[in-house]
Design goal:
This protein is mainly α. It contains six helices and two strands. The radius of gyration is 39 Å and the shape is elongated.
Length: 120
């Protein structure tokens, strides 16, 4: 008789717990979502004046560049730009990189900084 009571009480408890669980709000932990970022504008072709320059046109020609163009190069300021122009006016056009280096126009650190950014 005691066993029947215990079993009946346990069954009632299980049924009550089950009913409570079905009516309880679901509280599952979900990852927090970030707010949506605005979509990037559709890519359009740049206007002709804004087209990216090719590698060849990005190079500064040491034989024709103005002081302002030379001044924009890394390690070349106004004084070094004037020295480059003076060297090409006195000795003629630079034939190539070796000719430019042989004339000792700028120090080695400046040579290394502009080596891949100039043409002749």
């Amino acid at each position: 008789m005691i066993i029947k009571s215990v079993l009946a009480g346990t069954t009632a408890l299980l049924l009550a717990t089950s009913a409570f669980a079905q009516n309880a709000p679901q509280t599952t932990t979900q990852p927090q979502q970030r707010p949506a970022t605005p979509a990037a504008p559709a890519a359009t072709a740049p206007a002709p004046a804004q087209r990216p320059a090719t590698a060849q046109t990005q190079l500064v020609n040491l034989n024709t560049a103005t002081e302002a163009e030379l001044d924009k190069l890394e390690q070349i300021g106004s004084a070094r730009a004037k020295a480059i122009i003076e060297a090409r006016n006195k000795g003629g056009r630079f034939k190539d990189w070796n000719d430019f280096v042989a004339r000792n126009v700028v120090p080695k650190n400046a040579e290394e900084a502009i080596k891949n950014k100039v043409r002749f």
